[in-house]
Amino acid sequence: MTPVKCYPPKPEKVYFFGTCLIDLFYPEAGMDAIRLLEREGVEVLFPEDQTCCGQPAYTSGYHDEARAVAAAQLGLFPEPWPIVVPSGSCGGMMRKHYPQLFAGTDLEAQANDVAGRIHELTEFLVHVCHLQLEDRGEPEKVAMHTSCSARREMGLAETGPALLGQLGGVELVEQERAAECCGFGGTFSVRHPEISGAMVDDKAKAIEAAGAARFVTSDCGCMMNIGGRFEQQKKAVKGEHIASYLWRRTS
Amino acid sequence: MSVQTFTPREFHRQAHDALGNPQIRANFRKAMDGLMTKRRDVFSDWDLETLRELGANIRLRALAKLPDLLEQLEANCEANGIRVHWAEDGDEACRIIRGICDSHGARSVIKGKSMVSEEMHLNAHLEEAGIEALESDLGEYLVQLNEQTPSHIIMPAIHLNTDEISEILHDKTGTERSRDVDYMTAAARAQLRERFMAADVGVSGVNFAVAETGTLCLVENEGNGRMTTTVPPVHIAVTGIEKVVEHLRDVPPLYALLTRSATGQHVTTYFNMISSPRKEGEHDGPKEVHLVLVDSGRSRIYQDDELLDTLRCIRCGACMNHCPVYTRVGGHTYGTTYPGPIGSILSPHLMGLEETKDLPTASSLCGACGEVCPVKIPIPDLLVRLRRESVGEGRGNVAGAGVKRTRKEAAAWKGFEWMATHPGVWRSGTALAGKLQALMPAKLAPWTDYRTAPKPARASLHALVKQHRRRQQTDGSEGENRS
Amino acid sequence: MSARNNILQRLRERLDGPLSAPESDFAVVTNRGWGPEERLARFERLIGSVHGEVVHASRESWTTALAEVLADKGVRRLALGKEHPVAAEARRALADAEVELVDVDREIETWQQEQFETVDAGLTSTLGAIAETGSLWLWPTPDEPRLISLVPSLHIAVLDAETLEDTFFDVVEKHGWAKGMPTNALLISGPSKTADIEQTLAYGVHGPRELVVLVRHAGTTQESPDA
């Protein structure tokens, strides 16, 4: 559990770390996050040399490789602006595991500095921007899937639902076992495909049974997993990153 | 029901079998849902975080002073008349217990629940020596009748439903087939009471061993633990060396955490604290009490600052109750004495990573285990640590370190590192992936056995941000709308 | 002795060096601040929730309540001590009753079968109880041995209301347990139970099927709260 954090006042600028999944598969989610921040009057700095936080190698046990990848990101945020990450998973990696990964190395101080400035997107929108939303969308039943990293590693079970709760036309439906993992787990889904498959099957069924037309998540790994399951089962339920959903309904 | 043996080497096959078994799936789902709800309810009026902090703190203090506390425990037990034995490993502990049995000409041993005795296969060892070892905890008794091993450390027969249990009791003990739980319980009570009276030796585990007073604490609901430690003339308690706590006052917080975390109970029916054998003038209780302290890899875990946290465990089972993997594959799939998350971070030390190489990866790292652990063991971090050890990038101090390292996989991660540390290459790569989108195979097994494959976007975020900036410069407007 | 020395040596020559021991703050398990009434109400609610029956009686007339419990439960043979005032008073009160009083100050080896098969109930005193968890505190003695509260199907425990403490931690600390532990110290919270058959609760799996707590109240004005 992350200790209680003291949030800064809304800054003039932020760094945006887009994450590799968004970069490659869901760039619009990243753009919508940037648009939301810019609409709040925050200038978004996007360091061009960013690649990946290194988490896939980290959780697979390849820490030398993960450290090299992470080290390549550490220098991208030289000014003291907050760093916004549209993913609890990558955010958790950078906030919690960078300090562990660089403990006792020359980069320890820099890693701690970067880690201390990491904010997950919904966390930043709620606690720093104090975002106020005006819904312009059609009435809709939506289920929120908060990723395990956002929920447990970053302690952010409430921020996603709090944002969706501001949308007047959105009925947030409660799925059974909402806090249970969707079964993605990065390489877990490849190393233990059958178990992961059983987990995502249950998650998709729970979302569908809750009567949701759509599920919204703050992590693209979960979206790829749950959304891919719905698509493979030819179900009508669609997944969307929370940044895109918020932007789409309020612009 | 056929007798099955399970081994961690066959984790994948066993998981496949369990996932395809609707009975197993239903039994575990129902049980785990119930246990999670009960735990949540019982902690609802507690300052749980403060209590967990205290629990962690007590265990860390005990571990910090471990060698001194073990000596103090030994001295106080001996002063109280409890004989203390030390065993390097499970085999030595089995030999010690067998030796005590032999010295009394014992032919029949009755057992209270003890995971460490499962770990060292005590029953098989005693039976080879012609000594019958009978489990008396109802769940353990049922599992033993069914020639199985426990599938949960607190609820050994959780994989069985009422009908299956009725069938086992009918087949093995001749009771009527019945769905009446009271009838079955009463039948087992009658069968086991005969055995308590006839037993030569009682063998139990220990939940907490108190150094300050030389006291062995046993937590239970059934009363079989009290029977085991009171009725036979000899009591042998067996425990891992990490179970010691410093003071008696350390016990109430750990007990509060244990029962609530394990089964959502405020308290168990019995908290049984044993400090000596029957004294002069007392009328019941064993005349001899022995304590066997087993190392079995624990002192090796103890060497490493990070791995040390594994030894805080108080064996409540909450991590497995909350584990989405355990819930789906059940306890036997792991093929180890300790299943679920705690098993996946403990078993590699007890059995080596060659045997257990699939266990540290059998987790989505969802963090549910670490969140509920009453002594705040960072289980996900320890799983990652063992993954490091498995691929040869840890400290190399776990048996079998490096067993999972393959040239192919190591090269793949090196390739990832190279891409992700060369931003120009990365950008060209993501751009290229978008252009070659149509060439992406629709099937990427095993991912696509359960889901459609994701498609690389036509333009990467890097490219979109560039476009966005150009447009911002030309419009001079910031709040542009996509549509 | 070599295993002992090897193990201790490995622990002492720890690879990552000596560990520092943190201090512990026990505030979370003490200082409940409950008054006598709340304490009793909690005790009763908690032990009731695990199938313990509570009967209130005054200090003067508790043996009448005991006789009623025995009649109610159909107890014919009651095992009990001799010296403890609880046992002594019970013996006096039950001298003319139909219930047969079974002596327990005998080596168990001489009457084990009898105890297991023919005793209907065991009567014991208690040293106190814990409100937070609904637990009785017993330290068995030669006068009231260990198995009396375990083997018979019914356990009747006599508890003086004023001996209730808030928490287990309070009992251990206030009563100086660390200064000297008896052969066997027990907390008992309800009758024996199991949920090993598909999480269905069943009572009396090995020990008593029923537990009756006779709570004695000092002073004559103290009427039973729920009588």
Automatic annotation (TrEMBL), chain A:
Superkingdom of this protein's organism: Bacteria
Pfam families recorded: CCG (PF02754)
Residue ranges of domain Cysteine-rich in the record: 14-95, 142-226
PANTHER family, alphabetized: LACTATE UTILIZATION PROTEIN A, UNCHARACTERIZED PROTEIN YKGE
Name assigned to this protein: L-lactate dehydrogenase complex protein LldE
Any one annotated GO CC term: cytosol
Species the sequence originates in: Halomonas campaniensis
MF-aspect GO terms: oxidoreductase activity
Cited InterPro entries: Cys_rich_dom
UniProtKB/TrEMBL annotation, chain B:
Keyword terms: 4Fe-4S, Electron transport, Iron, Iron-sulfur, Metal-binding, Repeat, Transport
A Pfam family hit: LUD_dom
Span of domain 4Fe-4S ferredoxin-type: 304-333
Top-level taxon of the source organism: Bacteria
Record keyword Membrane present: no
SUPFAM superfamilies for this protein: alpha-helical ferredoxin (SSF46548), NagB/RpiA/CoA transferase-like (SSF100950)
GO terms of molecular function: 4 iron, 4 sulfur cluster binding; metal ion binding
Keyword flag Aminoacyl-tRNA synthetase: no
Sequence segments annotated as region (Disordered): 464-483
Gene3D superfamilies: Alpha-helical ferredoxin, NagB/RpiA/CoA transferase-like
InterPro entries assigned: 4Fe4S_Fe-S-bd, 4Fe4S_Fe_S_CS, FTHF_cligase-like_sf, Helical_ferredxn, LUD_dom, LutB/LldF, LutB_C, NagB/RpiA_transferase-like
BP GO annotations: lactate metabolic process
Protein name, per record: L-lactate dehydrogenase complex protein LldF
Species annotation: Halomonas campaniensis
UniProtKB/TrEMBL annotation, chain C:
The organism's place on the tree of life at top rank: Bacteria
Keyword Coiled coil: yes
InterPro entries, A to Z: FTHF_cligase-like_sf, LUD_dom, NagB/RpiA_transferase-like
LUD domain: residues covered: 41-215
Key words of the record: Coiled coil
Any coiled-coil regions, as ranges: 87-114
Protein name (Swiss-Prot/TrEMBL): L-lactate dehydrogenase complex protein LldG
